[in-house]
Amino acid sequence: MFKRLFGRERHSNRIIADALYEEIVAAARQPHFYSQWNVPDTPLGRFEMLSLHMFLFQHRLHAESAEARNIAQVLIDEFFLDVDHSLRELGISDVGVPKRMKRLAKMYYGRTAAYADAIERQDDAALEAALCRNIRPDQEEWAESPQLAAYVKAAVENLASQPVEAICAGKVHYPQADDQGK
């Protein structure tokens, strides 16, 4: 038992989780989102993009093996730990963090349900509306939502083409946002 908790297997799982999470964060931080598609470069805007990319990762692994689903769970736990840490860095008090985490978790799961529904129904208009409603709630219409929706669909296809064994080994790749529409 102690070998599993403290041994090589635990260390290699941490390396895999870290590698996957780094790729998800890097994809969410692509400058094109913020400079060309007018995603707000704010803590909430960055949360939205990280949530979107976490959703894409989760969506890819949801129907896979128990091992893949376990990795997906480790990554969602890592995501919420990162959000918690970010709130604390922003100066939210220890008393305020749990309340905000509850609200952000509710936001995340609501968004992912809307994205999943639109993707499963292949409803581009619903996907664009969900992206606009979540990422640019300050605008009734967001001119760049079709580009982001095209990116989301490309990411779904891109992730689906990657072998689950490679993902479970810590290798995942997202498309480049600036390649969309070319």
From TrEMBL:
Matching InterPro entries: Ubiq_cyt_c_chap, Ubiqinol_cyt_c_chaperone_CPB3, Ubq_cyt-c_CBP3-rel
Domain Ubiquinol-cytochrome c chaperone: 36-172
Highest taxon of source: Bacteria
Classification of source organism: Bacteria, Pseudomonadati, Pseudomonadota, Alphaproteobacteria, Hyphomicrobiales
Similarity section: Belongs to the CBP3 family. Belongs to the UPF0174 family.
Protein name as it appears in the record: Cytochrome b pre-mRNA-processing protein 3
Annotated organism of origin: Aquamicrobium lusatiense
